[in-house]
Automatic annotation (TrEMBL):
Sequence ranges assigned to domain PH in this UniProt record: 203-299
Gene name per UniProt: Swap70
Ligase is among the record's keywords: no
SMART domains per UniProt: PH (SM00233)
SUPFAM superfamilies tied to this protein: PH domain-like
CDD domains assigned to the protein according to its UniProt record, in alphabetical order: PH_SWAP-70
Localization per Swiss-Prot or TrEMBL: Cell membrane; Cell projection, Lamellipodium; Cytoplasm; Nucleus
Name of the protein this chain belongs to: Switch-associated protein 70
Classification via InterPro entries: EF-hand_SWAP70_N (IPR057836), PH-like_dom_sf (IPR011993), PH_domain (IPR001849), PH_SWAP70 (IPR057837)
GO molecular function: DNA binding
Source species of the chain: Chloropsis hardwickii
Pfam family, one: EF-hand_SWAP70_N
Entry coiled-coil feature ranges: 309-530
Superkingdom: Eukaryota
Length: 579
């Protein structure tokens, strides 16, 4: 119903804009109710068109009344052609061009209705160049002529430069001028317009004469068949005045080709739920065209799709809307790019000014640089003369320094020779220290053995004291053991004496090594004095302390010499007591 309402509004809009509402609004409303088979409401009509300022016409307009009391009550059971003809009658006289046209008023009416079908859904109504091209192509094909695409492209360019599209009356004038139908007579153009009108407005998918077999008499009669999206009507002739019947089509119908029989050729069968129709076409081509057209119509009914021309119109509108959105998006992007470009231009202008300022500064700096360069050249000349004088002095100094260098190298060679002799002295000192370390280790070993012997003797002394306290019987036995131990002690004393001798020999060796070390130290000292005399280029390695070092079984320098003598006297006293 929404699509039907839009189609009705377009025709009503033409009639509404052509009338003086204060005088003829009632007439338009009355005629609309009549042709649309809508019940009249005289009270609402009089209330709406009341002559005072409080009437709905003055504060709400005509559209609310039209929607509420007329369009919402339309059921679709009306003659569309009669409705369009009533609206055409109200608006044609005022708007139709007075200049002579190559088409009749009836053809102009049909073009006006086609315009309402193809125009955009916005007011004031216009038909865009794409739909104009579609309509002119349909008419050209119906006339059997060739389409002049280049001619239309020139017309389209001229049209786009001045406006978005054409009004209904401009479209009628364009087709009536014969600009795109040159060489065609009025009758051919009229037939082409009628064919396009039948297809687009009356939904006629195909029409033509064929023979139909009767259901009762079984005789064959020629009929004019008209195929529409859901019905096939057949008439006595093509003037459509005497209608003989209808073939209701739905998704369950089918079409089958039949073999020739009873002297009839090009037969096909239309099967419906309640009836079957046998039809004979004039030739095989017509037969195939009708079968294909009916099958396509049934397929559309099964799929619930609109007729091809309406579906194509919807697709073209959707495509235009999509292109419009893309164009708007492109325009938006172009505006953004333009704004960005303007910003860039401003930035470039600012950069240009900065470059000009920088160039001015660079020129000033270049001027200063040239001036400075001249000054530097003068200064350089003076410096060059001064440099020559300085170079002569430097050459004299270099000659003097070369002589001093030779003397210095001679002294270095002498120092190197002294350094080699010092290295040999250091090697002698190092060997003496190694001999001293060997003697120290020998003394330590001898002291450890002496300590072990003394510990053993003390142990035996303690065992003798324990033996004295035993019984007489044991005393005799212990006396024997004591004698044996005294003998062992005598042996140990002899060994101790031997160790004392060995220790004295070790001390003598130590004294000899120490003397050698002192001799090496004196040599080192003499070399040190010589090196100090030659500006101290080499630092000598000094020997260690000359004080004597004592080595006991407790380790190096564990006791002083006095403490060692006191311990020796204590040990001898304990030995005498035990004896």
């Amino acid at each position: 119903m929404v699509g039907l309402k839009e189609e009705l509004l377009k025709s009503i809009w033409h009639a509404f804009t052509a009338l003086d509402l204060d005088r003829s609004g009632k007439v338009l409303s009355h005629n609309l109710c009549t042709v649309l088979n809508v019940p009249h409401d005289p009270v609402a009509l009089e209330e709406h068109f009341r002559d005072d300022d409080e009437g709905p016409v003055s504060n709400q307009g005509y559209m609310p009344y039209l929607n509420k009391f007329i369009l919402e009550k339309v059921q679709g059971n009306f003659d569309k052609v009669e409705f369009n003809r009533m609206c055409w009658t109200l608006c044609a006289k005022k708007n139709l061009s007075k200049s002579p046209l190559l088409i009749s008023d009836e053809d102009a009416f049909k073009v006006w209705v086609i315009f309402n079908f193809l125009s955009e859904d916005k007011y004031p109504l216009i038909i865009v160049p794409e739909e104009i091209e579609y309509l002119l192509k349909k008419i050209t094909e119906a006339m059997g002529a060739g389409w002049q695409q280049e001619q239309f492209d020139h017309y389209k360019i001229a049209l786009n430069t001045s406006r978005e599209g054409l009004s209904a009356w401009e479209l009628i004038e364009l087709i009536g001028s014969g600009q795109f139908s040159k060489g065609m007579d009025r009758q051919t153009v009229s037939m082409a317009i009628n064919e396009v009108f039948n297809e687009l407005i009356l939904d006629v998918l195909k029409q033509g004469y064929m023979l139909k077999k009767g259901h009762k008499r079984k005789n064959w009669m020629e009929r004019w068949f008209v195929l529409k999206p859901n019905i096939i009507s057949y008439y006595v002739s093509e003037d459509l005045k005497d209608k003989k019947g209808d073939i209701i089509l739905d998704g369950n119908c089918c079409v089958e080709a039949l073999p020739d029989k009873d002297g009839k050729k090009c037969l096909f069968l239309i099967k419906c739920l309640d009836k079957t129709f046998e039809i004979s076409a004039s030739d095989k081509k017509k037969k195939q065209e009708w079968i294909q057209a009916i099958q396509s119509t049934v397929s559309l009914l099964r799929a619930g799709s609109p007729p091809p021309h309406k579906e194509a119109r919807q697709k073209r509108k959707e495509l235009r809307q999509k292109l419009l959105l893309e164009q708007e998006e492109l325009e938006r992007q172009m505006k953004e790019l333009q704004a960005a470009n303007e910003n860039k231009q401003k930035e470039l202008e600012a950069v240009r000014k900065q470059l000009e300022a920088a160039a001015a500064r660079a020129a000033e700096e270049e001027k200063k640089r040239l001036q400075t360069q001249v000054e530097l050249q003068d200064r350089f000349s003076l410096e060059l003369e001064r440099e020559k004088m300085v170079r002569q002095k430097m050459e004299e100094q270099v000659a003097q320094k070369s002589s001093e260098l030779e003397q210095y190298l001679q002294r270095v060679r002498e120092l190197e020779e002294m350094y080699k002799q010092l290295q040999e002295a250091l090697e002698d000192e190092k060997q003496a220290r190694q001999d001293e370390e060997t003697v120290r280790k020998l003394q330590a070993r001898l002291l450890e053995e002496e300590t072990a012997k003394r510990a053993e003797l003390e142990k035996w002394h303690l065992q003798q004291q324990q033996t004295i306290q035993m019984t007489e019987a044991e005393k005799q036995e212990l006396e024997n053991q004591r004698m044996m131990k005294e003998q062992a002690l005598q042996v140990a004393m002899e060994q101790l004496k031997q160790l004392e001798l060995e220790r004295k020999e070790a001390l003598e060796q130590y004294e000899e090594v120490k003397k050698k070390l002192e001799t090496a130290a004196n040599n080192t000292k003499s070399w040190k004095d010589k090196v100090a005399h030659h500006e101290g280029l080499i630092r000598l390695i000094e020997p260690g302390s000359k004080n004597p070092h004592l080595i006991t079984n407790w380790g190096p320098a564990a006791f002083t010499e006095a403490e060692l003598e006191q311990r020796q006297r204590s040990w001898k006293g304990k030995k005498a007591t035990s004896e």
